[in-house]
Specification:
alpha+beta; three-stranded antiparallel sheet; globular; 16% helix; 30% strand
């Protein structure tokens, strides 16, 4: 499975944030200045894959019921 795109809506302090992934194989590195959303994206990916914990602090600004995490995934064909 490979992420092609990951989107956050109303998560943490971000109203909307999108993280595109390269179509190339290999390692993807997220970089940017402080407060750009790198750690928030990492937490969002973990919450997307494993579920948002009941004690999550990422719903403090907009409310936990408004959080939307979405992704476009591609299944590996074994190549």
């Amino acid at each position: 499975m490979k992420f092609e795109r990951f989107s956050i809506s109303k998560y943490g302090k971000y109203d909307a944030l999108e993280l595109p992934f390269s179509e190339r194989t290999g390692l993807t590195v997220a970089y940017g200045p402080n407060e750009a959303g790198k750690s928030t994206c990492l937490s969002g990916i973990a919450d997307f894959l494993f579920g948002i914990p009941h004690n999550s602090t990422h719903g403090q600004v907009y409310g936990k019921d408004t959080i939307r995490l979405s992704a476009m995934l591609r299944l590996s064909t074994g190549e």
